[in-house]
Specification:
- By secondary structure, this protein is α/β, with parallel strands linked by helices.
- The protein has a domain at 4-79 and 203-311: Rossmann fold (3-Layer(aba) Sandwich).
- Helix content is 30%, strand content 24%.
- It is built from 10 helices and 12 strands.
- It has helices spanning 46-53, 80-86, 98-101, 108-119, 124-137, 154-165, 184-201, 212-218, 236-241, 246-253, and strands at residues 4-15, 18-30, 35-39, 61-70, 73-74, 91-94, 172-176, 205-208, 221-226, 229-235, 302-305, 308-311.
- It has an 8-stranded mixed β-sheet, with helices on both faces. It has a 4-stranded antiparallel β-sheet with strand order 2-1-4-5.
- A hairpin with a 2-residue loop joins strand 1 and strand 2 (18-30).
- Helix 4 packs across helix 5 and helix 5 (124-137) crosses helix 6.
- The chain starts with a strand and ends in a 5-residue tail after the last strand.
């Protein structure tokens, strides 16, 4: 049985201009000990989708259809109290901006301790000792347990967020752009830390990023999102060697490579569509160099090709 199964998930934001179809009929599975990368342009629905996994979608957003089955039960049908119990030891998340996610008037140790006491029956002394060990686990001296967030650098704040998220040994960890805005040296340190934690704690991970190099280094599988939909899902190696969907191909051509023949980078013409009234048929067809009449009329369904799933009319 898969650890996580997302079935036909739809999340809309209801505005005066109409319903924004931020996530529109997405399905995927994640097995234990696997790492899935979600890539795509800004605004394609990546963060909205994982917010649904945590039941964080708030008005005007609403989950209008679908199932999110975690360890055999649909978390969209459980009570708010059960969901609070699940967050932390079940599903944990590291948010994109540690500066905004951390409480500025509480020490980092206190924030870790609160997470532990919320979910586990331990004494305060035991929780504080666990918090000290959590900081050391992510490469921060335990002596910094009484420090406040403003006393840490950007990279160290992200380490604190990882310490909080893993304090109760979650069974699934979600990372939302954890290295965005950090310099390359700090990025390298954090990616190494995440790799070590994954091996030590046997953590399945969903990794959201727009950085293709980060995905190549950290994820075994990749799902490519465009305009609220997954258009291709494949192993990382096969996707990078030979992307099948035209959007995946365009993404690869827009990113520099440090190996092989150097060439001019190509931008993707046009802009992503508005999701209040997305294009009929394939949502990528206004920007696709291989567009056909059927692309403007019928939405493509997923087809198998060389062990991957691709939603494109070009795939026979």
């Amino acid at each position: 049985m898969a650890l996580l199964e997302v079935e036909h998930l739809k999340i809309y934001y209801f505005t005066r201009q109409g319903a924004v179809k931020a996530v529109d009929d997405i399905s995927f599975t994640l097995d234990k000990d696997k790492t899935l990368g979600l890539i795509g342009e800004s605004g394609c629905g990546k963060t909205t989708m994982v917010f649904a996994l945590m039941r964080f979608v708030a008005p005007p957003g609403r989950i209008v259809a679908g199932k999110i089955i975690f360890e055999g039960r649909d978390i969209l049908t459980i009570s708010d109290k059960e969901m609070r119990r699940l967050r932390g030891p079940g599903i944990a998340m590291v948010f994109q901006s540690a500066q905004n996610a951390l409480n500025p008037v509480m020490t980092v140790g206190k924030q870790i301790v609160e997470e532990i006491l919320e979910h586990e029956s331990v004494t305060k002394e035991e929780a504080w000792e666990r918090a000290r060990k959590q900081l050391e686990l992510v490469g921060i001296s335990g002596d910094r347990i009484k420090s406040y967030p403003h006393e840490f650098s950007g990279g160290m704040k992200q380490r604190v967020m990882i310490a909080i998220a893993t304090a109760c040994n979650p069974r699934l960890l979600i990372l939302d752009e954890p290295v965005t805005g950090l310099d390359v040296i700090v990025q390298r340190q954090l990616l190494t830390l995440l790799s070590d934690l994954r091996e030590e704690l046997h953590l399945p991970i969903i990794f959201i990023t727009h950085d293709l190099a980060v995905v190549a280094e950290t994820c075994g599988e990749v799902a490519v999102m465009y305009a609220g939909k997954i258009v291709e899902q494949a192993s990382t190696v096969s996707l990078y060697k030979e992307p099948a969907h035209p959007y995946s191909q365009a993404l690869m051509k827009s990113y520099p490579s440090i190996k092989g023949k150097k060439g001019k980078l190509r931008s993707i013409p046009g802009a992503p569509p508005g999701l209040t009234n997305p294009p009929v048929g394939c949502r990528f067809h206004p920007r696709c160099p291989y567009v056909m009449d059927i692309c403007r009329q019928e939405e493509p369904i997923f087809k198998q090709r060389d062990g991957r799933l691709v939603a494109c009319h070009l795939i026979k």
